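Give me the fold.
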Amino acid sequence: MDNPQSTMFKVEQLLKNEQCDIRIVKNGNEYAFNFPQNRVYTIPAYQREIRWKKENIRLLINDINNGPKFLGTILLSTKDNLHFSVIDGQQRITMLILVISYIKKEAGNNIIFALQLSK
């Protein structure tokens, strides 16, 4: 396995359909991770199905409403320059997308979200 790297960045960067370049400096070396426009995220077949209940969703929304949150680790594996497999974090990502989609449907596309991974 390659030398895994990690960093914190905005969820917005991960979910937007725009070019996103993330740079990490480790021991004086700079590593660049490029997420191209029109990238595709897939959930491997071995991942379990969503098991969230209404209370889990309420807690997530309440937590987000109370300010920036660290949403945990999201692990991605690259298949090629355009395709990424979600190894960890698929339930959180899926629920965030569902909640955002629902809110946009109810409130219209005038809402801009800026969810952020933070300490």
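Residues 114-119 have pLDDT under 50 and may be disordered.
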